[in-house]
Amino acid sequence: MDPLEARLYFTRQLKSMSASLQQHTECAKFAIKNEELQEDFHSVILEVISAVDLNVRLNVFDFIEVLIEETLKLGKVPERPYLNRLVADLPLIIRQVIPTTDDLKGLANLNTSCTILASLSRVLGYESALRYQQILQTIGESKAEIPSFLDASCKYSEQLAECWIFVIQMRQNERSQRQAEDRLANDSSFSMAQVQPTNTADTPKAPKNDSRSQSVQPEDSSAPNEPASSPEKSSYLAFSNQQILARMEQDRERNKRAKESLWIVERPDGKFTRAEFDAIYARFKPLSEEDMNVLGEVRTMVQESVTTDDLNHSGKKLKLT
Prior knowledge:
The structure is a single chain. With 321 residues, this protein is an all-alpha fold. Among the domains are: 3-178, Serine Threonine Protein Phosphatase 5, Tetratricopeptide repeat, CATH 1.25.40; 285-315. Helix content is 59%, strand content 0%. Helix 1 runs parallel beside helix 3 (38-49). The protein starts with a helix and ends in a 10-residue tail after the last helix.
């Protein structure tokens, strides 16, 4: 495959990127296979992630994590492809995934981006990410200065710290926006409660055929005390039905992958250790009298359900003790 054809293929894959791990892995293996084009492919990633919609941007960011993880699995190589370039531009990439626009639509990608960034920090060995996650959980109303935590053991800590500071600032903006909307709603409800209903019992009624009874309605027929819809809020929710359904399906796929990763056990030497056995053994308690009674009931059910023909099936005799 010539360089131009490879670039076009890689561009199509990124523009149609979904949340499927299989697609991420296949695309990452294709990029690693053509590592001599890594500079060209890196520019494609930056171009595509700034041109597609918010859902695809999040999927491309998820793909970047898979690409970095696949690169780290290569073993002993002189230079790991894509790694240095991607991590160096990571602050720029996350600003494209969570764009800081006036309509605040980018906040829709905030929660999932934090999850991907946490997983990426774990892959790159950035332990200070746990401290930033604690700040996210205890974030308050005040916009205090966010410290920059640098790990001496992680050479990419500066770029990752910049990414975490950005997402925390976006979380603060989201919190401020929600509080402003809540205050606006409370003030509007309070002002509407102060309006007293007019008594129309003493108001004389005009004759039906009197032309004076026909009043010209104003162009804006909305009630004066009814709060107008916030343009920022309406823009924040301005997603098409197709984008919403696609996002629901993609989030479902990501949640399924997150649950699958909970079962992964890291064994550096590939062997089952005594400490792991003791940890699993400590989860279970000795059998109690109630457990023995349940086992006895199950044994009785098995004896009653198994016939003589089943016991002698294929010339093998089953003995229940």
